[in-house]
Amino acid sequence: MLFLRCKVALIGSAASGKSALLQVFHSSQSAFPKSYLMTMGAELVLKEVRIPDSPVVVELLIQDLGAQAIYDSVTTSLTSGDACPPTFYLLCVDTTSASMDYAYSWFDKHQSAASSAILVATKSDVSDRNVAETQALAETHGIPCFVTSAAIGKDVDAPFNYTAQAFSQMYDDFIQASGALRV
């Protein structure tokens, strides 16, 4: 068995469904939060994801980052600089204008990290949500987009499983390029 650890930042505007998505994923879809509690700074969650048809297990170290302006310095210190930034960013948008504005702003500020972003359209169970703009944004940046709903458990695992598989592939590519033997 080969264990890999991947650092992931869960980002998005306030109330975009980040924490609910993470809680449902972490609980294997058994615990949708019935009440909303604002994330204070950052919350860390560990979850192992087995790679199908492989001896690889990727442990996702997921940072659920608060989106309020008061936490900007915390978010910046956890996601940039020399202190080991995340390998992937799961950018959650609930397709409201505030959430989409956050996403456009994030891409403007973090162009160098855009290729490691994965867009996650949340709250797809709400009838007035139109994910077309989110999908178009993902296409513009050449990144994947997942449509999810934590409330009904729709495709909650998909962005996390994709992240684990992409990280495992990055590891394989690195090992192959370096000529090292895989353990």
What labels would you give this structure?
single chain, 183 residues, alpha/beta, Rossmann fold, six-stranded mixed beta sheet, 5 helices, globular
SSE layout and pairings?
Layout: E1 2-12, H1 18-26, E2 42-50, E3 56-65, H2 72-79, E4 88-93, H3 97-109, E5 117-121, H4 132-141, E6 145-147, H5 158-178
Parallel strand pairs: 1-3, 1-4, 4-5, 5-6
Antiparallel strand pairs: 2-3
Explain what this protein looks like in three dimensions.
Keywords: Nucleotide-binding. With 183 residues, the chain is α/β, with parallel strands linked by helices. The chain has a single domain (2-178), classed as Rossmann fold. The chain is 33% helix and 24% strand. The protein contains five helices and six strands. The chain has a six-stranded mixed sheet, sandwiched between helices. Strand 2 (42-50) and strand 3 (56-65) form a beta hairpin. The N and C termini lie close together (9 Å). 33% of the residues are buried.
According to DSSP, the number of beta strands is 6
- For the record, the CATH architecture stands as 3-Layer(aba) Sandwich
Query: Hey, roughly how much beta strand do the residues contain?
Result: 15-25%
Can you count the helices? 5
What is the overall silhouette? globular
Name of the CATH homologous superfamily = P-loop containing nucleotide triphosphate hydrolases
Low-confidence stretches: none
Mean pLDDT: 85
Q: Report on the biggest sheet.
A: 6 strands, mixed
Write the H/E string, N to C. Answer: EHEEHEHEHEH
Number of domains: 1
Provide the gyration radius in Å.
16 Å
In CATH, the topology is named: Rossmann fold
The span between the termini is: 9 Å
Major sheet strand order? 2-3-1-4-5-6
